[in-house]
Design goal:
Length: 423
């Protein structure tokens, strides 16, 4: 039994980012980073670690949001041609990898678990790339049952936000060059449905998972759309300029938007909204005052009497109104079409997706998590790409050397060797 305010363990580290321990959902174990290792302690024994995960190149780890058996994710930085990888383990058996995914040319990794701690989203990003000054992003999905896959996005551009539903095995991704897209994926990474496109860069599920807010904050105009996840229809659309903070209320019917310092030091304040679009309350700071933080008090809130929520009909109180452009008097009685830089695309249901079939003679990169095998697979893939180029030259009528023709003959042999490595 541990008494309150009793000091039970003191640790020191030189790395500020890995200072805080990560606890399991039931607070029965916690882990803390060491060089290339994670030490796990079992409460109430804090004197010595009970288990240890040791991998060369280990950079970070994460614990799934579940009770025992606990799922642990680790990010390993590759070197000398060996790819980076994310691997899943089940505590306390930290020797056997239950799922893994490998990738190249990314600088940062962000990991997010679903509400059951059984599936993980891995957002990979790079600072700069050949295609973009702002770098590239890629989203991967790993499951405790051993499955792993890339999340296929239908529009090029950065990934702004990834959010798991708090009640279902589905997640929302906001991505693509503006106007961005927002797509809901199921547990198999298939498209469940697509929300309307527009100037959005963030998504927030309500705590009961019945509604989702799509928002455009920061360098995007402060527009907020509230969608009903059950009916798949938009409920309201409001304008909340200069918003730096958004949070759902625990009654799942209200939410708050705020303008806070130090992000913005003028026009600080907050607003309380209903999800139907009505502004309930507004607070503004006085002159030369700053607002630093706004939070809902946690607790169980009564649902109260609610009006019937209908799909948006264009008359919601908070719906943003476009500023009218000046028109000469002799044109004010006429109608005209105003050209737009881009048109927002309305929401649409997902179209059935046929399984991906590799092209004849093509190769899909699929690493195993075994460092030696992955190195050989990469070498074979490089040879197959060279063979592909030689075959195209041959089809165009180019004359090839004898050794180049011999290389083409080895294509099936190389493909078979790669398949054996993947087993």
């Amino acid at each position: 039994m541990i008494n309150l305010h009793e000091e039970v363990r003191v640790t020191c580290t030189i790395n500020r980012e890995t200072l805080a321990p990560i606890w399991s959902n039931d607070e029965a174990i916690f882990g803390r980073m060491q060089t290339n290792q994670v030490w796990f302690y079992e409460v109430p024994n804090f004197e010595r670690y009970a288990n240890r995960l040791s991998i060369d190149g280990l950079q970070m780890f994460s614990l799934g949001k579940s009770n025992a058996p606990y799922t642990i994710a680790s990010y390993i930085k590759g070197k000398k041609g060996i790819p980076d990888s994310v691997r899943l383990f089940t505590y306390p058996n930290l020797k056997a990898t239950i799922a893994s995914k490998s990738f190249y040319n990314f600088d940062h990794v962000n990991m997010k678990w679903n509400h059951k701690g059984t599936a993980l989203l891995v957002l990979c990003s790079s600072d700069m790339s050949e295609n973009s000054y702002y770098g590239d992003t890629m989203l991967q999905h790993l499951n405790r049952n051993g499955d792993s896959s890339n999340v296929q996005l239908s529009k090029a551009g950065p990934i702004y936000s990834i959010e798991w539903s708090p009640i279902a095995d589905e997640f929302c991704v906001v991505y693509g060059f503006m106007p961005s897209k927002a797509t809901i994926f199921n547990s198999k990474c298939d498209v469940a449905w697509e929300l309307s496109s527009g100037a959005k860069n963030a998504a927030y599920y309500s705590f009961d998972g019945l509604h989702i807010a799509l928002c455009g904050f920061g360098n995007v105009a402060g527009n907020i759309e509230i969608w009903n996840m059950k009916d798949r229809k938009r409920i309201s659309q409001i304008e909340a300029l200069d918003t730096t903070h958004f949070q759902w209320c625990y009654d799942n019917f209200h939410f708050i938007t705020a303008t806070t310092a130090p992000r913005l030091r003028v026009k600080n304040g907050f607003k309380v909204w209903r999800l139907t679009g009505e502004l309930v309350y507004e607070y503004k700071t006085g002159e030369n005052q700053e607002l630093w933080q706004v939070l809902w008090q946690p607790g169980t809130y009564a649902r109260g009497q609610r009006p019937a929520i209908k799909a948006e009909d264009g008359s919601a109180p908070g719906k943003p109104k476009a500023a009218a452009a000046y028109r000469p008097p002799h044109l004010r009685q006429t109608t005209r079409q105003v050209p737009k830089l881009h048109e927002d695309v309305p929401a649409k249901p997902a179209t059935p997706q046929s399984p991906r079939v590799p092209k004849p003679g093509g190769v899909e990169e699929l690493f195993t998590g075994d460092l030696e095998k992955d190195k050989k697979i990469k070498q074979i893939h490089k040879k197959l790409q060279q063979i592909k180029g030689l075959k195209e030259r041959l089809a165009n009528g180019d004359k090839l050397e004898v050794d180049q023709l011999e290389k083409i003959k080895r294509e099936n042999e190389l493909i078979e060797e790669m398949e054996n490595l993947r087993l």
